Amino acid sequence: MSSLLEILIIDDEAQIQKLLDITLQSNDYATAHATNAKEGLIKAANHPPALIILDLGLPDKNGHIVLKELREWYTNPIIILSVLSNEEDIITALDNGANDYLIKPFRTGELLARIRSALRSKTDIENNSVITCGNLEIDLAARAVKKNNDIIKLTVTEYNLFALLIKNEGKVLTHQYLLREVWGPGYINQSQYLRVFIAQLRKKIEDDANRPKYIITESGIGYRFILED
Question: Which of 57, 101, 116, 224 could form a disulfide with 80 if both were Cys (CB 3.0 to 4.6 A apart)?
Answer without folding.
Answer: 101
